[in-house]
């Protein structure tokens, strides 16, 4: 099931997206009674997807991101692959949805894209054993770990470089129909203005999804709707005002955002 969060006529709701993503005009959203983190029913009330505004599919209390989890990406930036997952945070204010604009951060002159698979947590959890990691996952979505690369190089902490407003596009929806084995070998790409910039597979992760969940929940409680960013393949590069950047993941969909000049 593809679960989206959307607004229509000033109201916000969750819904199940039906139809063929390859034929956008066929897509409709069946409004959910309740929330996707508990038992819910489909209302049967359907709205064409092109009549609603897609929002970020979840509102996480925190985004836990993993750095240098693809060896080729670590190498392209001149870093070693860490022995254990290397985590940092993006705040909830960084999260935006599919189609939302990305204002170019005024304190940077080197904004980079980073296409990533995002894991959406479905229930409160801590100290999760590896064999049960799949039980705490609601589903998967596309993410773009936007980074002020020049700031990242000059500041020891990554809070500003990775956590600025609109630095964490998520979407277009959460795909719940993938099990962890399937999610661990998906094609992931990033294009800028239609030009291919990144191409890899989630099977190239140094630390797989289950290990990330174990590592993170050893230290902190994850809540329903929290998000884990699993790292990016090689090919990261610059974005300019006016660019449209799109992250596509096999079996999930495409997340697209346009970079604009900040007012």
UniProtKB/TrEMBL annotation:
Annotated ranges, domain Fumarylacetoacetase-like C-terminal: 62-259
Keyword set, alphabetical order: Hydrolase, Metal-binding
An MF annotation (GO) of this entry: hydrolase activity
Domain Rv2993c-like N-terminal positions: 1-57
Entries under Pfam families matching the protein: FAA_hydrolase, Rv2993c-like_N
Keyword Hydrolase in annotation: yes
Domain of life: Bacteria
Key word Metal-binding present: yes
Protein name: Fumarylacetoacetate hydrolase family protein
Organism: Streptomyces humicola
Lineage, uppermost ranks: Bacteria, Bacillati, Actinomycetota, Actinomycetes, Kitasatosporales
